[in-house]
Amino acid sequence: MPDSTPSPKDTCYQALKTAILTLELQPGADLDEASLSAEFGLSRTPLREVLRRLAGEGYVDLRLNRGARVSEMSHTTLRDFFLAAPMIYGAILQLAAQNARGPQIEDLKQTQARFREALRKGSARERALVNNRFHEITGEMAGNVYLLPSFRRLLIDHARISMTFYRPRDDDMARNVSEAADQHDRIIAAIEAGDADKAATLAIDHWNLSRHRIELFVMPGGLDLPLGAPPRAATA
Amino acid sequence: MPDSTPSPKDTCYQALKTAILTLELQPGADLDEASLSAEFGLSRTPLREVLRRLAGEGYVDLRLNRGARVSEMSHTTLRDFFLAAPMIYGAILQLAAQNARGPQIEDLKQTQARFREALRKGSARERALVNNRFHEITGEMAGNVYLLPSFRRLLIDHARISMTFYRPRDDDMARNVSEAADQHDRIIAAIEAGDADKAATLAIDHWNLSRHRIELFVMPGGLDLPLGAPPRAATA
DNA sequence: TGAACACGATTTGTATGCAATATGTATTTT
DNA sequence: AAAATACATATTGCATACAAATCGTGTTCA
Lengths: 236, 236
Prior knowledge:
The structure is a homodimer.
Chain A: H1 8-21, E1 30-31, H2 33-40, H3 44-57, E2 60-62, E3 68-70, H4 75-99, H5 102-121, H6 124-142, H7 148-165, H8 171-193, H9 196-218
Antiparallel strand pairs in A: 1-3, 2-3
Helix pairs in contact in A: 1-3, 4-6, 4-7, 4-8, 4-9, 5-6, 5-8, 6-7, 8-9
Chain A binds a DNA duplex through helix 3.
């Protein structure tokens, strides 16, 4: 019988991961070894190993003699992100369609059901986490050890970007989000049919939608104020 | 004045890295914490952090309660490698051509000079390491945090594959290797000219050459034996 | 004879104490 | 008064001791 109770180390690892993905721990936040080890009930030695692991996966940055910080998100990273994401994710879905195994497809379908559920009555946090899990599974399906490191790194910032831009502020955004869920369905169908080309195309579409959503946020429509009397001061 | 003497930890990290890249530590080899910490003159705590870091970068695999091993290389990894490498390296060189800065180009040229030197009178080990450094620099030039994890992972096995297949066993291989050096020159030229398309194309070529070299090894030409008397047993 | 079990030895995982480095504050010096 | 410096404090890095798990070996039992 395999151990059912997860070790404090695993708990800590998972907790930090999700806290970072959901922006509960914001980019650049300081991670103090002493307080964290106290919080999770383990000594500093294993905690440091957790931080080292998170650093290797891109969740945190380590600075010599100056502790760990949640990895930063700048505007340049946003640009780099959309350069890399379509290519990597296209390749992942292509391979996923070729190599997916039955149980994995079941897992994906179930996760998609959870995603729709989260869209209806879940928090932004829950949506981002389930969506993240959905894409993780496609990565497992592809099963290419050389593509996974970058893919996993992309997923981290994908979740964090989602947390910033995913909340439906208005009806337009709400439609956008439900469109994303429909794309997930089409992705599942392509994978189940083993249609690699279709899957790759859907990956590109998925990112175009995501990019569009963010462009709307970064470049909002004008405020539609009438030209005329220039304001003397800030109008309450 | 910055510390000129590298810490034992860094020394250990670098030594393990190069030992793995050059196959001095073979894939699957056990890494014992006690003996390693003794060898490099540090205690087990920092040594374990080094191993964790190497694991995050793909040099070693960690197994719970059962120590670290040099990461494996199987035939499936060889296939996955050639699926991922052209795409990733193509993207890296494309971005390198767009973003390379002056000092980096100088660094690349100097490394290429060292590579040619190693081809003339260096060991297989030295060739693989300098070649590895050459490609590392192109990765630095590209400077995309999302592509680098996969790229670095590829470089590890690229070096190890090179160590297996790079030694010029015959004249044909020797020509092959010198062709690789010429490709490096063309890559430098494309980067210096800022020609992204050209750079991407050269990346594909570079991997085709590499794949060809390995196919020759894995699938050697027939032994050219005359059909006729079937052998009764293994012929000495 | 073979399989299961128990025990000793080896190796990994964790906790704690100490050393080294960085930070913040108060004091001194110009 | 401003800058530099020295000192106290807090935090990271490392070494050692101990706990837990694994592995090899010899023994017992079917």
